[in-house]
Structure formats: C-alpha cells, structure tokens
Specification:
Chain lengths: 471, 316
C-alpha cells in the first residue's frame, strides 16, 4: 500500500545521485570494520562529553545517548536555496499571524480562519491581547519539521514555535563528523553550521526592549533534571550567557533581576526553554516551581523580552496547521513555496466521513499531542487499535486531524546488519529578529527501526549530520 | 555570576577534595594493613579516624565491630553512605552538571568521566572483588587531575575563586579532623619518655603527603611537636591549617561584595592567628581545645560564605 520512498542517496538501479557522489565514492573505499570502529568511538566520545538526555524514573544517574548515525544526510545547494526561501516565507507569515491574533484579528474578521478555532484554543493566551513586543516578533526561534514525499517534493509536517529543541545535536553531530572523518570535509564543500550560537545571540540582542543599549540575555531552564538540559547548558555556554532557573530570578518594580554574588542584576532578554504554563505562577499554573512570580507584569510593561513570546502555541497547534498556506497568502500576498501535507480536519463532517472510511491507510494525530505519542499509523496498526481510535474520533472529533501515510524519504543508515535505508525528516531552525536567518541545514532525525516512520528520540529515533553543499 | 552557580562550583570542589581526603586516609591505613603489626593498632586508628570524620555512627548501623576490610569498603564504596568516596564523586559530578555551561569543557569532562569510571568500576563488581588500594590511588590521581585542569584551564574570575574557596575550606577541615583523630599522639609530653608509635605517625604523615616533607624539613626523628608544627603552622606546607586559611582569605578577598566585610574579617583573623602563633602557645591552651575551636570557626566561616554569596536571603 505504501508508495516507494524517495532515496536520498541513490537513484533507481543503485547509481548515486549527483550531489552524493563525493560521499558514496568515499564510502565504497572504506575497508574492513573501520566504520564500525568509528561508530564505537563516537559513542564513547558522546558519553564522555555528556551529550545525553535524562531518562526519567530509572536507576541513579541513568542517562542515554541519542543514537548518532555516521552516514550524513546531504542536500544539494539548489534544493536548499528553495527550502530556505520557503522557510523564511512561512515563519514571516506565522509571526504576522500571531501578532494579528493578539491585536486586530483581521484574519478572523476576514473569515479565513474560524474565530472559535483560535480564540477557544487552549494555547491562545488572552493575557497577551494588546501587548506589543519588540519588532512584532513572537516566534524568535522556530523549528519547522520538513519531510520529503515519494515524488521528491518537500512538505512541512509540523511547525514548532514554542520551545523547539534539537539544535545542539545539529552542532555536536557536525563536530563529531569532523573529528571522525576530517578527510570528508576537505573533499566536500559543506556549509558550516558552528556559528549558530553567535547568530542566535545576535538575534536575541536585536529584540531587546527599546532603549536598552547593551542588553543582558539569559537562558531559562527547568534545571539539570530536564531531559533537554544538555542543550540548555550547551547553548548558554556557547553564547556566554547565564543559564538561570526560576529560583535565580525575581521581579521588583516591574523589572526582572537575577541573584548574583554581587547583588541583583537586571535581565533584559530571556531565552526561555520552559512552557508558557510554567512561566509565572501568579498568572498560569499556580503550582509551578519553575517560573518567576510576577514575570508577566514585567513582560506586559515591556521591561523584558521573552523568546519565544508567550502565546505562540496558538500558531503551531495541529488544528491551525492546515491554515498556514492561507496565512501566507493573506499576510504576504504570495503563493506558498513549500506546501503542507494534505490534512483532514476531523471537526469538519466531510473530512471526518472520508477519514473514518479510510482509517487503515491514514495517520491520525491528536491536535495537542507531541513527541510521537497519541497517534495512529493506520498501515502499522492492528484492527483493534484502529477500532479503538475510531471510537475516540467519533466521541471527540475536534481533537484529531488525519494525514495520508507518507512514504518519508530514506537515507542509508548504519545498523546492526550494515548499511540499510531508514526513514528521515529534517528540522531546520529559523531565527527571526532584525531579519530572518537560517543556518544551512538543520537536524536530520532518523527512524532506526526498520520500516518505522517515527523519528522522535523518545521512540527509538536517532540523528544524522546534515550537509548543505555549497555551490 | 549567579549565586546558584557559585554555590555549585563551591560544592563541586569541596566534594572532590573530600573524596581525595578520604582516599588519602584509606590509602594510608590500607598500606599499613599490609605490614606486620598488631591488628588492634589498625582497628583503633580506623576507629579514631571515623570518629573524627563523623562516620562512626553510620558505620555502626551496618557493622557491629571495626574490621579493617569492612571499614575500607564502607567509606570507599558504599553507595548508601553519603560520606563515602563513591558518594562524594557522585555529588561532585552532580554539582558540576548543574553548571556545566560555566565550567571549561576540559573540567566538565574530567569530572564526568571520573564519575562514569568510578560507577562502572563499582557497580560492575562486588565490593570484595575491588582492589581498594588501587581504587583509592586512582581517586587521588583523578583529584590531582581535576585540580590541575581547574588551574590550567579556568579564567581567574569569580567562578575560579569560589572553586578555590571550596577546595581550601574542605582541606582545612580535613587536616584539622585528621589531627583530631591523632591528638593523643600529639601531646608534647610524648616527646619525653614515651616512644611515639611509628605506625601512627606514618599514617598521619602519609595521609597528608607530609612524610617525605618531614624528612626534608627536619632531617631528624619524628617528634609530636614537630609534626604539629608542620601540619598546623607551616606556611609552605600545602595541607597545613595556615596554608589553607591563607588561601581561603586570599580568594575571599577577590570576590568581596557589599555585605561580605565581616566574613572577610573573620577569615583574616583566622589566618593572622595561625600566622603569628607559636606551638608552645597552642600547647599551653591544649591542642584538642584548639582543634575544636578551629573546626567551629571554620564551620562559621562556611555558613557566612553561604549567606553572603551562595544562597542570599530571598529578596536583596
């Protein structure tokens, strides 16, 4: 039933694609178990450097590696140029949308998106209504998940506008590849990525509150027990900014300060890596120990910039996703460069009827689900699982969307039995501030289990280095 | 720098120093356990040492009598006992992990791999299979390495000074406690008449890397008052009380803030007292009393540093 997936490295008949020739020739020249040795070396290095994520509820100090695959994913220059333009366009429209929703709501008045779908969404934050943010930018850091279908066409699968993660793996994977295989980098013109922290810091400084000449930027983390803590510590270190927890901060006279050994110090820009719900116990979840009481007062007064802004979730919800191409036309007057994956919205009776009749061939996702949980992959499910989902859809159709089961493109990957094709996706990181910038490439995630389409690290996914070739 | 960051740095270096101190004591006793001597001497020395380090209560909960191998395993490998070397290495690494972004990557990787190695050495084997002598030797080396990486890679900023304060407060505490465990041998009366126990002396001196130093400095037989002089009042002896207090004072001055004047004064006072003291005076007042007061002052200093810098009161 599945279409034949697009192979990133090989054409039909096993000839290498032009942009992969440099790599595939090198690969053929590797003798014996050199690759296996290099892979073991990579594992040992990742452990030593502590590039691990915490596994909850296990033995003391249990930390796991996200598997790293040593075969890179390569993108030719021309493809990247087009992707880059499409990503910038999309994120510009998304930022315009969020700004509009929290101000005049023109897109709702124009009837492009049903108002109740936005205003009744749990991610819509009434506290943000009428609040101006510097440059009108809300999603300063966006992670846009891109897949390639069987025709070779790129599609956006998901927008991540809250606290997208994974960029540290993009950087560490490159560092590891350069350490393991330096010869590959002298033979191929691979666009560098290691300036990402500089670009990010510059981006954060560019959105400081008006009138602050030399802003103090901090990164807010939930702490060392958070599963993404490595990334928080890594980015703070690379940018040379303080890594703070809620307990390090306090609000006085509508301004945010951090407790230092030399007394309180004012904070101007906060790159936060915790969800809206936990940011200010006085406004959101009162039981949150991670946030800063009074933060929203300082924020609404314009005395601190929070990146990403509060309330961006209203634009990356799966129920809003189908409307993004319309947003691009509405705000930018342009045709979308990268399309969406076709999506059926199950609150809509016509869509629902179709989906219920075709469940075994579709993917059904919970609107608020994340991390590969709460979804049905029709072709890989038992009859019981399908019937179970059918009942749930009929009971609460507004909680679900459906998409065709995509034949995600594959890339050769080093597995137990040697090299074999595995499904991949791509998460580029789009930075918005004074301008919109993207470091070439992004994080390539790979589903390591044979046939699996789920690339999330919590579900047995790994990562690859991503190369964008320069012209 | 963030108060919390300073706090983690301070504890990170205290724990690694503590791991080394315990390793030194185990090492010294372990060597002696390989030599012919009366078993009671070794057991007594271990008993006194555990008492001075406040480890005796926890030990008694697990064991009814002092048996050298059991003591070694308990204070080195025990995963439940918070004072064991194993626990110290874990705490050092946990503190480091909480501020890994503020450490140089060399320092973080050193502490991280020390912990990972220790864990795999201890978790994979039963305690009886572990060569204690080799293990504590390794712990000492890792501590030396950590200190070297700290000095060799860290900027001389506040973070560095708090790391140093942690190191030297812990070391002063450790030296004072080891002296306490041996205070019976240090009374001046032992000079005349009573033959000092060579076993006790060598344990004490070896644990503080002072055995060879003693020979070089005095070129003479070991006497209690010279040992005390060396370990309390010598400025050039890296583990002496004077040297440790001097380092604490210097590093504290470098991080002074608006509220730390009194803390700085007390650290200066401790340093000055040792700097100008003579052994005769200390003996006249009683060495045990002196050590007891010293430990109390050290404790006070630790609390003051915490409230001035590390865990400041809720609102400034």
């Amino acid at each position: 039933m599945l279409k034949t997936p697009y192979d990133e490295m090989y054409l039909k008949g096993n000839a290498g694609r032009a942009h992969y020739l440099g790599y595939s020739r090198w690969l053929e020249g590797q003798v014996g178990d050199r690759l296996a040795q290099k892979r073991a070396e990579a594992d040992a290095l990742f452990h030593r450097v502590g590039i691990t994520f915490a596994v909850y509820g296990q033995d003391e100090g249990a930390e796991r590696l996200i598997p790293f695959d040593i075969v890179p994913r390569v993108l030719p220059h021309e493809e990247w140029i087009r992707l880059e333009a499409g990503l910038k366009q999309r994120v510009r429209a998304l930022n315009a949308f969020i700004s509009d929703i929290y101000h005049d709501q023109q897109i709702l008045k124009a009837g492009v998106i049903p108002a109740e779908q936005v205003l009744c969404n749990s991610q819509y934050r009434p506290e943000m209504q009428g609040v101006d943010v510097p440059g009108g930018i809300y999603a300063h850091i966006a992670g846009i998940d891109i897949v390639r279908d069987d025709t070779g066409e790129f599609k956006v699968l998901e927008d991540n506008l809250r606290v997208p993660s994974g960029v540290s793996y993009m950087l560490e994977n490159r560092k590891m590849m350069m350490r393991l295989f330096p010869e590959l980098f002298s033979a191929n013109r691979v666009a560098p990525v290691d300036h990402y922290p500089d670009v990010l810091l510059d981006n954060l400084r560019s959105v400081a509150p008006i009138g602050v000449a030399d802003p103090t930027v901090v990164l807010l983390t939930a702490g060392a027990h958070n599963s993404a803590y490595f990334e928080h510590a890594f980015l703070a270190q690379q940018m040379g900014i303080e890594l703070v927890e809620g307990q390090d901060l306090f609000v006085r006279d509508e301004a945010v300060f951090m407790r230092t050994t030399q007394g309180p110090q004012r904070v101007d820009v906060m790159y936060r890596r915790i969800d809206d719900d936990f940011m200010d116990p006085l406004v959101f979840r009162p039981d949150s120990m991670l946030g800063v009481p009074g933060l929203m007062t300082a924020y609404r007064a314009g005395h601190i910039t929070i990146a990403n802004a509060i309330g961006t979730g209203v634009a990356d919800d799966k129920s809003i996703y189908p409307y993004v191409p319309e947003m691009i036309r509405f705000y930018l007057g342009q045709a979308p460069i990268i399309g969406n994956v076709h999506t059926w919205v199950l609150r809509n009776p016509v869509d629902r009827e179709y989906v219920l009749a075709h469940l075994p061939e579709l993917v059904v996702k919970e609107v608020h689900g994340a991390g590969g949980y709460g979804m049905l992959i029709g072709p890989a499910s038992t009859l019981d699982e399908i019937e179970n989902f059918r009942r749930q859809i009929i009971a609460t159709p507004e909680r679900y969307i459906a998409q065709p089961t995509l034949a995600l493109s594959t890339c050769p990957t080093f597995v137990e039995a040697g090299l074999a094709p595995r499904h991949i996706d791509l998460r580029p990181f789009v930075l918005s501030g004074r301008e919109v910038t993207i470091v070439p490439g992004g994080l390539t995630r790979v589903a390591l289990r044979e046939g699996s389409l789920v690339v999330n690290s919590s579900q047995g996914g790994g990562t690859k280095d991503t190369w964008v070739l320069e012209s | 720098m963030l108060s919390r960051t300073a706090d983690h740095m301070y504890w990170m270096s205290r724990y690694i120093e503590r791991a080394e101190s315990v390793a030194r004591l185990v090492d010294a006793h372990y060597r002696m356990s390989l030599l012919p001597h009366t078993p009671q001497t070794l057991a007594d020395s271990l008993g006194e040492t555990m008492k001075a380090l406040h480890m005796d209560e926890a030990y008694k909960q697990k064991h009814s009598s002092i048996e050298p191998r059991a003591v070694f395993e308990f204070i080195t490998l025990d995963r439940d006992f918070t004072g064991s070397i194993y626990s110290c290495l874990r705490c050092a690494r946990e503190n480091a992990r909480a501020v890994r972004g503020s450490l140089t990557s060399e320092l973080w990787e050193t502490l991280n791999s020390t912990w990972l190695d220790a864990r795999s050495q201890i978790v994979r084997r039963s305690a009886a299979q572990i060569d204690i002598g080799q293990f504590v030797e390794w712990v000492k080396e890792r501590s030396h390495l950590t200190r070297g990486v700290t000095i060799g890679t860290m900027m001389r900023d506040e973070a560095f000074h708090f790391t140093r304060i942690g190191t030297f407060l812990e070391r002063a505490d450790s030296t004072a406690r080891i002296l306490t465990a041996h205070q019976g041998d240090l009374v001046p009366g032992a000079d005349a008449g009573v033959v000092p126990d060579p076993f006790q002396w060598s344990v004490l001196l070896r644990a503080l890397s002072a055995f060879e130093v003693y020979r070089r400095v005095y070129r003479d037989v070991i006497t209690p008052s010279r040992v005390a002089q060396l370990l309390i009042l010598r400025d050039d002896m890296p583990r002496s009380l004077l040297r440790c207090c001097k380092e604490v004072y210097i590093n504290l001055k470098a991080v002074a803030n608006e509220q730390s004047a009194e803390t700085e004064r007390r650290a200066g006072e401790m340093h000055a007292m040792l700097h100008f003291a003579r052994m005769e005076e200390l003996n006249a007042g009683g060495l045990p009393q002196f050590l007891e007061q010293f430990l109390a002052k050290l404790d006070d200093l630790g609390h003051r540093i915490a409230s001035d810098f590390l865990v400041p009161p809720a609102e400034a």
